[in-house]
């Protein structure tokens, strides 16, 4: 039960303090019903919706890494910058994955 509370606190913190997370949630809320409707079966629906959930998950991890880095101070350090850049890159790669998954699922049907 405590783990659930901590998870909800983490989601709340991400919602309150991370504009990127909020934007990605808005996109998820808009696109998840579309993915459910466009998916021809359970596998396609899982791929379309699951790919977007992965973006949200990695955004949470990226935000956590950034919070830890900021905890140690605002001064620039090469390793801190590298860690932030890599976290951002992970989110970007999964956004590309969303495009690939949606393109593959929908393209195979409509092209």
TrEMBL record:
GO terms for cellular component: plasma membrane. It catalyses: a 1,2-diacyl-sn-glycerol + ATP = a 1,2-diacyl-sn-glycero-3-phosphate + ADP + H(+). It is a multi-pass membrane protein. Gene3D superfamilies: 1.10.287.3610. The active site is at residue 59. GO terms for molecular function: ATP binding; ATP-dependent diacylglycerol kinase activity; metal ion binding. It is found in: Cell inner membrane. One of its GO terms (biological process) is phosphatidic acid biosynthetic process. The chain crosses the membrane at residues 21-40, 46-65, 86-105. It comes from the Bacteria. Its cofactor is Mg(2+). Substrate binds at residues 12-15, 45, 59, 88. Mn(2+), Zn(2+), Cd(2+) and Co(2+) support activity to lesser extents. This is Diacylglycerol kinase. It comes from Luteimonas cucumeris. The lineage of its organism: Bacteria, Pseudomonadati, Pseudomonadota, Gammaproteobacteria, Lysobacterales.
């Amino acid at each position: 039960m405590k783990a659930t509370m901590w998870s909800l606190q983490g989601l709340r913190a991400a919602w309150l303090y991370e504009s990127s997370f909020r934007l990605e949630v808005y996109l998820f809320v808009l696109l998840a019903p579309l993915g459910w409707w466009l998916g021809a079966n359970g596998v396609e629906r899982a791929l379309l919706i699951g790919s977007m959930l992965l973006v949200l998950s990695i955004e949470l991890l990226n935000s956590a890494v950034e919070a830890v880095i900021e905890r140690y101070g605002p001064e620039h350090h090469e390793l801190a910058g590298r860690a932030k850049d890599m976290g951002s890159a992970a989110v970007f790669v999964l956004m590309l994955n969303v495009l690939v998954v949606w393109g593959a699922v929908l393209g195979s049907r409509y092209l």
